[in-house]
Automatic annotation (TrEMBL):
SUPFAM superfamilies the record matches: ClpP/crotonase
Annotated organism of origin: Amycolatopsis halotolerans
Signal peptide: 1-21
Name used for this protein in its record: S41 family peptidase
Enzyme Commission (EC) number: 3.4.-.-
Record SMART domains: TSPc
Domain of life of the organism encoding this protein: Bacteria
Keyword Mitochondrion part of the UniProt annotation: no
Enzyme class, first EC level, given as a word: hydrolase
GO molecular function per UniProt: hydrolase activity
Length: 316
């Protein structure tokens, strides 16, 4: 069930500034064709579909449908042809963000000189973002006070959502500079970076909040834990660490949603999540709709990570 939710709750990787809207109160036919036009114009997988045939078939299947929601099956049939598990239609109920008070937030613990920071997925409103970043900053500060020689970042339960609060929480561990990018056909790369204590997308801050924590031991060794439940922006958070020589990954292969979605609001409150880009790490290596393998596959990643950290300079 968790993996299914990871595929559904995936989201707005490119931020609210890219959300588009359809005209209000369309007919079911207009609504259907509008959704298909968005897929045809923006999907990174659009060349997989014979659009005249697909549109004609969808319109025939929707004849006599009295409601906008009655066209969902036709839209999802075309989504199946695109073949990308990250491109989704969310009903109005599925698209509703949870309340800020109910979301999971980062937590931490430390033992034997090693800090563990658990970073869950994040989907919520601005109040939720403030709560998430504040909790993450407090969790990081609590273990930083013990001057750990190494860090474990646990992404095993990170099923996705908005990546920017996650990266802001992790800014002190990532360090300043380019952390990755989004790339797509005919698009200029959109770079992710860390500076001034928070994550940025191009020239725009990813969060309103800033992480003020500064590490006693800068640029520490970091072990990142992953699993099949690490999905979407959980995978993007993993990718932000890849290419750093002081980082290694442990655990299981990820879910395979290392792509960026543009979010389109539909007239009835549904949302169309359209995969428009792939994630790229700081070295220029692209990812996509396939799982990311860890450096060290293991069923006991925390133990293996601790052993690896103790072989690094500061933890020897």
């Amino acid at each position: 069930m968790r993996r299914a939710l990871a595929a559904i709750v995936v989201l707005a990787l490119l931020g609210a500034g890219l959300v588009a809207a359809q005209p209000s109160v369309p007919t079911p036919r207009t609504y259907l064709l509008g959704a298909l036009n968005l897929l045809r114009a923006h999907s990174i997988d659009r060349d997989r579909v014979d659009w005249p045939r697909a549109e004609a078939g969808a319109v025939r299947a929707a004849e006599g449908v009295p409601t906008l929601s009655g066209t969902y099956p036709m839209i999802r049939d075309v989504l199946a042809e695109l073949g990308n598990p990250h491109t989704k239609l969310l009903s109005p109920l599925q698209a509703r963000a949870p309340s800020a008070a109910t979301i999971k937030v980062p937590s931490s613990r430390a033992a034997d000189g090693i800090a563990v920071l658990e970073v869950p997925g994040f989907v919520a409103d601005p109040d939720g973002e403030r709560r998430y970043v504040a909790a993450g900053t407090a969790a990081l500060r609590a273990v930083e006070a013990q001057a750990p020689c190494g860090w474990i970042v646990d992404l095993r339960d990170n099923s996705g959502g908005n990546m920017w609060p996650m990266l802001t929480v992790l800014a002190p561990l990532l360090g300043d500079g380019i952390a990755g990018s989004f790339a797509g056909p005919g698009l200029a790369p959109s770079f992710w970076s860390i500076r001034d204590g928070r994550a940025w997308i191009g020239d725009h801050p990813g969060t309103a909040e800033v992480n003020p924590v500064r590490l006693t031991r800068p640029a520490p060794p970091v072990a990142v834990l992953t699993s099949r439940d690490t999905a979407s922006s959980g995978e993007a958070t993993l990718i932000a660490f890849r290419g750093l020589g002081r980082v290694a990954t442990f655990g299981g292969r990820t879910a395979g949603y290392a792509t960026g979605n543009e979010v389109f609001d539909l007239a009835d409150g549904a949302k169309l999540l359209v995969t428009t880009t792939v994630d790229v790490d700081r070295t220029g290596r692209p990812y996509g709709a396939w799982p990311i393998a860890p450096d060290f596959p293991t069923q006991d990643p925390e133990t293996a990570a601790g052993e690896w950290l103790r072989t690094r300079g500061g933890c020897a």
